[in-house]
Amino acid sequence: MKIDLTGKTALVTGGSGQLGRVMCLTLAQCGADVVVHFHRNAQEAERVVQAIRALGRRSMAVQADVTVKAEVDAMKTLIEAEMGPVDIMVNNAVIQYRWTRVLEQPLEDYDSQYRSCILHNVLMAQAFVPGMVERGHGRVIGINTECAMQNDPGQGAYVAGKRGMDGVLRVLAKEVGEHQITVNQVAPGWTISEDHPESEASLGYREKVPMKRRGTDQDIANLVAFLASDLAGFITGQYISVSGGNVMPTI
Questions:
Q1: Which of 187, 215, 224, 249 reaches 20 to 30 Å from 17, CA-CA?
Q2: 60 is in which domain, residue-wise?
Q3: Cα first-last separation, the chain
Q4: What highest taxon heads this organism's lineage (predicted)?
Q5: Using one digit for the tens of pLDDT, what is the confidence trace for 164-203?
Q6: Residue 130: inside a domain, yes or no?
Q7: Global model pTM greater than 0.70
Q8: Which DSSP state fits 104?
């Protein structure tokens, strides 16, 4: 038994970012052709594209602001013209901002998280899921966060956006399940990546984690690949934590 995505086309938003680039490469290693979305970092997106092509898979980079309907629709047109329909959609992009307490957080930060966590998922679903419905198969994977369960000081705007995203994707899972489309969420903990290496500053965090370590970007990508595959064909509407047990969704 193995994860085999041969013949599938995947789209990863924020594919040039710290977690996105590993997701893109992992999906390609499983046999998928991969579209690497980026907003500003064209150079890194092209680097990921070249790495995917070196694996023998088709790939392209596409630029868009995924919080703007016209840009998402234009992206869809470009992708389908060059790569064909999207079978696997990974909504990973998010707007970064400076965290502070609710009473001090600028209102524009709440707006940015609404747009990049909620509106992003809605616009991508409206653009790409109808085609999945027509084909009777598809995978939607949203990248959430352990913070949505922690609700720690300073996380207010991020948690607001991600919890709203959770609601939208759970509803979507019920609305499109009959068409054999699964909708799930991967919720990373504080993850080691190229941009966020292990450090002494994370010692306190590691001590709270049952497994006494931070996860890696590959840990996240592995779950994304599984959920994208036929092996996960009867799993939908789920929020799955990849945090070493730091948060534990309950029944």
A1: 249
A2: 9-242
A3: 30
A4: Bacteria
A5: 999 999 999 999 999 999 999 999 999 988 777 887 778 8
A6: yes
A7: yes
A8: T
